[in-house]
Specification:
The chain is mainly beta and 360 residues long. Helices cover 3% and strands 35% of the residues. The chain has a four-stranded antiparallel β-sheet with strand order 1-25-24-23, with no helix packed on it. This is Serine/threonine-protein phosphatase 2A 55 kDa regulatory subunit B.
Length: 360
């Protein structure tokens, strides 16, 4: 991973110039399902960057002070699992979150959240269970869950109905009653067949400070103050121009894509992905946003990323792309921001792009 100096975390808006650093992955047009990157995350120091793919492989990149040179070599390290935590979920696990006590973690699937001790592999405690007695009465599923970064007794989970529940494990062993319930009232005039689908929350992330949390639904990113449950304090439109395309997005199943989101190290900016290998950054302080593209065409070292704009109608300008020309097979679902510097990792199908600020 290329090095980048500098202190602090300026926001990711228009006044911060981003440039290409590295790209990892094959150039093949035909991508095997097993090669698609399914997660990307920095460690707490930012010196390690891990990716996982749908084939069950985990690749860890270590940061070097010199821009590394790729050399073919035999495999020298082979990872083997130290512990296997099994037989606790009936459905696919959608979230894993390590607690701030560094002793426990939670795992969540569509209907249940379990609490584990890192040293105990053969049993867990069920702390949330929304499975109805009759599955025909099921109206929502759990979509994401995360522990609070500082309060080891607090966690949140989101649902397919666009709601977020904050739970306190001190109040009850089974957190079937939430402490706080976050939901934005729907505007009846804008309700449509797709309303419930696009309101489903695909990701929830606490800010590093623990004061806020961010949620991602299909069209927007919302920032919530933990002290205000009635509505978000910020709403950032990611690709509002797709609202008129919801019918075709439903037919090709793209409307069910699960986009993730992330904070920068100082909580002053947020980032999330879109289609056409676009990703969006929102500067919370300056109230500005920018659209950038992860592309091999701009993969020259230190090449600046030019902001991209989508034309929704009328005469298209030279540097704009028509909404009808967007490639919905190219999507950025997973992104990560270095904890202390302006270095970002963006997963585009089977390629991992790394960008850094131009200053460094």
């Amino acid at each position: 991973m290329a090095g980048a100096g500098g202190g602090g975390c300026p926001a990711g808006g228009n006044d911060l110039q981003w440039c290409f650093s590295q790209v990892k992955g094959a150039i093949d047009e035909d991508v095997a399902e097993a090669d698609i990157i399914s997660t990307v995350e920095f460690n707490y120091s930012g010196d390690l960057l891990a990716t996982g793919d749908k084939g069950g492989r985990v690749v860890i990149f270590q940061r070097e002070q010199e821009v590394p040179v790729l050399k073919p070599m035999d495999l020298m390290v082979e990872a083997s699992p130290r512990r296997v935590f099994a037989n606790a979920h009936t459905y696919h696990v959608n979230s894993i979150s390590v607690n701030s006590d560094h002793e426990t973690y939670l795992s969540a699937d569509d209907l249940r959240i379990n609490l584990w001790h890192l040293e105990i592999t053969d049993r867990s405690f069920n702390i949330v269970d929304i499975k109805p007695a009759n599955m025909e009465e099921l109206t929502e599923v759990i979509t994401a869950a995360e522990f609070h970064p500082h309060q080891c007794n607090v966690f949140v989970y989101s649902s397919s109905k666009g709601t977020i529940r904050l739970c306190d494990m001190r109040s009850s062993a089974l957190c079937d009653r939430h402490s706080k319930f976050f939901e934005e009232p729907e505007d009846p005039s804008s309700r449509s067949f797709f309303s419930e689908i696009i309101s489903s929350i695909s990701d929830v992330k606490f800010s590093h400070s623990g004061r806020y949390m961010m949620t991602r639904d299909y069209l927007s990113v919302k920032v919530w103050d933990l002290n205000m449950e009635s509505r978000p304090v910020e709403t950032h439109q990611v690709h509002e121009y797709l609202r008129s395309k919801l019918c075709s997005l439903y037919e090709n199943d793209c409307i069910f894509d699960k986009f993730e989101c992330c904070w920068n190290g100082s909580d002053s900016a947020v980032m999330t992905g879109s289609y056409n290998n676009f990703f969006r950054m929102f500067d919370r302080n300056a109230r500005r946003d920018v659209t950038l593209e992860a592309s091999r065409e701009n993969s020259k070292p230190r090449a600046s990323l030019k902001p991209r704009k989508v034309c929704t109608g009328g005469k298209r300008k030279k540097d704009e792309i028509s909404v009808d020309s967007l490639d919905f097979n190219k999507k950025i679902l997973h992104t990560a921001w270095h904890p202390t510097e302006n270095i970002i990792a963006v997963a585009a199908t089977n390629n991992l792009y790394i960008f850094q600020d131009k200053i460094n």
